[in-house]
């Protein structure tokens, strides 16, 4: 196995993800990919990678690693996340790249309110592409590192084993987490299968994310959404962000690893601009919905892309942290040549 990052502890659920596996839903293969795509793209940009480079997605609790490559450059992106170096607990904030050398131990720490973060490594992770993507789909054992979440003792191989010395990059104005904003939806495709009180409740009531939440979807707890004439429909295609309602009347918000087809009516669909905000919510959090039109959703998607482009353009160079000893560079230089043979 190539040197890279040795997993000391894996965190709750740490997987390899990129922007997803496109073009295979007709064959029953989900898109998967990052839950919070803007954060993934920014993490990659901080270390100089193309935005679709595979990185580590970290959910709820962070992993701990030892660097086994000569030198690596990493960056953490995500609201409330940080990187902590074992050498006296020195923190490195999110949205800033840092170069680490062989033997360094570090962990990604998520704050009390943090849910989802990304660890990008310069050059990317040396894992195979499966159907055009390195994303992990755990339910099928597809992609990533052995098709599963990281485990203690794993070795994560890297494309670049010695990151070059250069100035680091930071994002001066990180994006807001959006923890309290309503999640915007477009009604449909089967909203006509619900009674009017159900449609009204969806956009006026408060729901809670239940403990039954993962990368496939979130079960929500709140008022029962009454169907007009039954909840069993002919299975049809599912889009990421769809809110399906089974016979219990309790909605399920479907995320990146969702099934490709389903037979429950879908009352509404979360707009693409707000899917990253959903990814930053945790079980027990409140969630409220607000309806928009398709035209408004398209405009909001364009605005989100413009904000991300502005954030990417705003990355600035900063000096490497002062006072650190780069052992990889030190050992590259023959500092004692001529001394061992001296007569005095």
Question: Helices, strands, pairings?
Answer:
Elements: E1 4-9, E2 13-17, H1 37-46, E3 55-59, E4 64-67, E5 71-77, E6 81-85, E7 90-93, E8 97-101, E9 105-110, E10 116-121, E11 155-157, E12 168-170, E13 183-187, H2 196-204, E14 207-213, E15 217-221, E16 236-237, E17 242-244, E18 252-254, E19 261-262, E20 266-270, H3 275-279, E21 286-287, E22 289-291, H4 294-313, E23 316-318, H5 327-332
Parallel strand pairs: 13-22
Antiparallel strand pairs: 1-4, 1-11, 2-3, 3-10, 4-9, 5-8, 5-10, 6-7, 6-9, 12-23, 13-20, 14-15, 14-21, 15-18, 16-19, 17-18, 17-20
What does this structure look like?
The protein is elongated and about 65 Å long. The chain starts with a strand and ends in a 12-residue tail after the last helix. The chain has 2 domains: 4-174, Jelly Rolls (Sandwich); 183-303, Cyclophilin. Strand 14 (207-213) and strand 15 form a beta hairpin. The protein has helices at 37-46, 196-204, 275-279, 294-313, 327-332; strands spanning 4-9, 13-17, 55-59, 64-67, 71-77, 81-85, 90-93, 97-101, 105-110, 116-121, 155-157, 168-170, 183-187, 207-213, 217-221, 236-237, 242-244, 252-254, 261-262, 266-270, 286-287, 289-291, 316-318. It has 344 residues and is α+β, with helices and mostly antiparallel strands. The chain is 15% helix and 29% strand. An 8-stranded mixed beta sheet has the order 21-14-15-18-17-20-13-22. Strands 7-6-9-4-1-11 form a 6-stranded antiparallel beta sheet, with no helix packed on it.
């Amino acid at each position: 196995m190539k040197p890279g990052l040795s997993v000391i502890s894996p965190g709750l659920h740490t997987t390899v993800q990129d922007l997803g596996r496109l073009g295979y839903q007709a064959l029953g293969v989900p898109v998967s990919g990052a839950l919070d795509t803007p954060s993934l793209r920014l993490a990659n940009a901080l270390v100089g990678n193309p935005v679709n480079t595979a990185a580590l997605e970290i959910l709820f609790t962070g992993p701990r690693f030892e660097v086994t490559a000569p030198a690596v450059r990493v960056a953490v992106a995500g609201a409330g996340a940080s990187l902590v170096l074992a050498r006296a607990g020195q923190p490195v904030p999110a949205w800033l790249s840092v170069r680490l050398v062989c033997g360094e131990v570090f962990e990604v720490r998520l704050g009390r309110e943090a849910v989802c973060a990304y660890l990008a490594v310069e050059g990317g992770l040396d894992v195979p592409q499966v159907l055009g993507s390195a994303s992990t789909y755990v339910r099928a054992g597809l992609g990533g590192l052995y098709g599963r979440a990281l485990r203690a003792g794993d070795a994560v191989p890297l494309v670049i084993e010695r990151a070059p010395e250069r100035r680091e990059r930071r994002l001066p104005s990180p994006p807001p987490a959006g923890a309290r904003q309503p999640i915007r939806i477009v009604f449909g495709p089967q909203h006509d299968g619900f009674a009017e009180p159900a449609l009204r409740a969806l956009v006026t009531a408060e729901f809670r994310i239940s403990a039954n939440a993962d990368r496939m979807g979130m079960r929500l707890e709140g008022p029962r959404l009454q169907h007009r004439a039954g909840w069993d429909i002919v299975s049809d295609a599912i889009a990421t962000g769809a809110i399906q309602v089974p016979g219990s009347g309790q909605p399920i918000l479907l995320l990146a690893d969702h099934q490709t087809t389903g037979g429950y009516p879908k009352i509404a669909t979360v707009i693409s601009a707000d899917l990253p905000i959903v990814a930053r919510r945790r079980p027990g959090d409140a969630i409220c919905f607000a309806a928009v039109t398709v035209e408004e959703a398209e405009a909001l998607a364009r605005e989100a892309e413009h904000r991300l482009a502005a954030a990417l353009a705003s990355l600035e160079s900063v000096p490497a942290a002062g006072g650190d000893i780069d052992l990889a560079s030190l050992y590259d230089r023959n500092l004692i040549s001529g001394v061992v043979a001296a007569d005095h």
